[in-house]
């Protein structure tokens, strides 16, 4: 890279009127207007069904609470490992969805060094083995190709894809906590883990431009436990609905909330309606 190229890049990086961000998908880099970006974040935070503005910084309170919960497990080594050390407030940012009109943002809450980060990471490790054991589970794209490569589509069938709109912020936390309770009971873990799980899932907060917000429901993408919780919920959806459909898809694979299915053409509308009927969210 020439000296002039480096100077040009430095000028772009130092320009406060623009932001250089990774795109939500596609490994692309995006240059966006700073004001437009901040307006989109503010628009997300204006959703009072998902976020609530706070009049205080919850970091100290949450730190004290998580330490108390960890102490209740009665494992000194675990307490030493998971105890927050100089915790900081989580921070929200957005990744532009450039594959959609007007590039809406996917909200991400960076929780590294937050009061619950290490505890959430530990819980994710404990709970993850209880997920991914369904016939629909897809590990990655290579796994998907291996499963689908010999499938033959008849003239009466169609390949379709489904996904959940804003899955992470729409995960019903109370239902997921009930499911986690079953996992903890089955694995004979101390019951204190249930209280720890509930706090990690319900105490989500973050800072934006000096103000603090709590997340009323759902989980924040950026939390170590979020992908596991999303899988728990989606597997519950499959048990409650997909497996009991009158017109069940012949083929159904899922990676988190991205579903690939092979269905009878005549039944597609009915299946779509059923999928949207299970939960109010």
User: Roughly how many Å is the radius of gyration?
Assistant: 22 Å
Please list the strands of the largest sheet in the order they lie side by side.
Answer: 3-8-7
The secondary-structure element order is HEEHEHHEEHHEHHHEEHEEH
Which band does the percent of strand residues land in?
Answer: 15-25%
Helix tally? 11
Number of DSSP E strands: 10
Level of helix content? Answer: 40-55%
How would you characterize the largest beta sheet? 3 strands, antiparallel
Q: On the 0-100 scale, what is the average pLDDT?
A: 91
- pLDDT < 50 runs, ≥5 residues: none
Separation of the first and last Cα atoms = 50 Å
Question: What structural class is derived from the secondary structure elements?
Answer: alpha+beta
> What form results from the Cα inertia axes?
globular
What is the domain tally?
A: 1
């Amino acid at each position: 890279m020439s000296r002039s190229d480096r100077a040009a890049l430095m000028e772009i990086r130092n320009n406060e009127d623009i932001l250089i961000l990774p795109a939500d998908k596609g490994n692309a880099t995006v240059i966006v207007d700073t004001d437009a970006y901040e307006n989109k974040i503010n628009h997300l935070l204006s959703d009072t069904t998902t976020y609530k503005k706070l009049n205080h910084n919850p970091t100290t309170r949450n730190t004290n609470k998580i330490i108390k919960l960890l102490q209740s497990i009665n494992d000194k080594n675990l307490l030493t490992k998971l105890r927050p050390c100089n915790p900081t407030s989580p921070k929200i940012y957005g990744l532009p969805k450039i594959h959609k009109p007007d590039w809406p943002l996917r909200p991400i809450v960076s929780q590294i060094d937050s009061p619950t980060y290490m505890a959430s990471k530990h819980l994710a490790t404990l709970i993850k083995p209880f997920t991914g054991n369904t016939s629909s589970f897809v590990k990655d794209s290579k796994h998907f190709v291996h499963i689908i490569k010999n499938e033959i589509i008849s003239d009466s069938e169609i390949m379709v894809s489904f996904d959940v709109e804003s899955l992470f912020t729409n995960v019903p936390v109370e239902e997921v906590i009930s499911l986690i309770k079953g996992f903890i009971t089955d694995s004979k873990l101390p019951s204190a883990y249930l209280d720890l799980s509930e706090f990690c899932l319900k105490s989500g907060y973050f800072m934006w431009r000096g103000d603090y917000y709590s997340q009323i429901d759902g989980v924040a993408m950026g939390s170590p436990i979020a992908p596991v919780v999303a899988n728990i919920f989606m597997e519950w959806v499959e048990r409650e609905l997909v497996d009991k459909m009158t017109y069940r898809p012949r083929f159904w694979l899922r990676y988190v909330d991205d579903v690939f299915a092979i269905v009878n053409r005549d039944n597609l509308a009915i299946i779509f309606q059923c999928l949207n009927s299970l939960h109010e969210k």
